[in-house]
Amino acid sequence: MTTTMRPFHPSDLPGMYRVCLLTGAAGQDATALYRDPELLGHVYCGPYPTADPDLSLVVVDAQGVAGYVVATADTAAFQAWCERAWWPVLRTRYARTDDPGDGTQDHVLRTRLHEPDVAPAPSDAPAHLHIDLLPRLQGQGWGRRLIAGLADALRARDVPGVHLGVSAANARAIAFYEHLGFRRETTYDWGHRLVLDLRRDSY
Ligand SMILES: CC(C)(COP(=O)(O)OP(=O)(O)OC[C@H]1O[C@@H](n2cnc3c(N)ncnc32)[C@H](O)[C@@H]1OP(=O)(O)O)[C@@H](O)C(=O)NCCC(=O)NCCS
């Protein structure tokens, strides 16, 4: 089978969760950081295609789902949807826990489920995204194609811009985003918020 980019299908979710975990430590494999391998996906992947399946794209090769972009067109509406339809069940399943002191980070994401990030989006970039590709697909243009495909879908909805958060430790991703035309909007202690202006013809 040739490697293909296509719209999200619900059967992609387990593979997307796997990709999320295998790239979840500032672009590197996060498997050793989490006792529960689904937690990262619950926070950073699953809610997006569940809330708005038309804004998720996957890259699939002979071994399965190997990359994706997930997004929302309207961050505030997405946060409200998560409060209503996503977090309540997960809050019942995942109680807050203390740091076990062994380096695992489940407690951080369990807290995030109960106290989600509700930072307002930049006024010119109400959309936000997450993109992840397994190492076997990196550096072959799939990241650019996923961003371009999402940008087309957002422009079709007259969305003026899209933002994302990236860890300061993920120098490779920052360079990728800036190469594609994302600009640094805010710098935090953990990293940067980057914005892409979708009203420009190209990036
Ligand atoms: C970051 C990531 C999405 C980039 O996707 P990719 O498929 O590897 O990148 P592409 O091959 O599509 O590169 C697109 C362009 O960016 C450029 N680029 C990519 N990485 C770059 C880097 N580190 N420095 C400079 N340019 C870079 C490429 O040269 C290419 O340029 P061109 O199209 O003008 O020739 C991908 O590597 C990835 O998923 N990494 C692991 C998970 C991750 O870090 N996700 C982001 C979390 S915020």
Q: What general outline do the C-alpha atoms trace? A: globular
Q: Strands across the major sheet, in which order?
A: 1-2-3-4-5-7-6
What's the order of the H and E elements?
Answer: EHHHEEHHEHEHEE
CATH topology: Aminopeptidase
Q: How is the biggest beta sheet arranged?
A: 7 strands, mixed
CATH superfamily: Gcn5-related N-acetyltransferase (GNAT)
Mean pLDDT: 97
User: What is the rounded distance between the termini?
Assistant: 30 Å
The poorly predicted ranges are none
Number of domains: 1
Rg is 16 Å
The percentage helix is: 25-40%
| Number of H- or I-type helical stretches | 7
- Structural class designation: alpha+beta
The count of DSSP E runs of length 2 or more, i.e. the number of strands, is: 7
Fraction of residues in β-strands: 15-25%
Which small compounds were modeled alongside the protein? coenzyme A
For this structure, what is the CATH class? Alpha Beta
Looking at the overall shape, the CATH architecture is 3-Layer(aba) Sandwich
Mind explaining what this structure looks like?
- The protein has a seven-stranded mixed sheet, with helices on both faces.
- The model has no long low-confidence stretch (mean pLDDT 97).
- It has one domain: Aminopeptidase, CATH 3.40.630.
- The two termini are 30 Å apart.
- It is an alpha+beta fold and 203 residues long.
- 36% of the residues lie in helices and 22% in strands.
- Strand 4, helix 6 and strand 5 form a beta-alpha-beta unit.
- The structure holds coenzyme A.
- The site of coenzyme A has 19 residues, from strand 4, helix 6 and helix 7.
- The site of coenzyme A (COA) has 19 residues, from strand 4, helix 6 and helix 7.
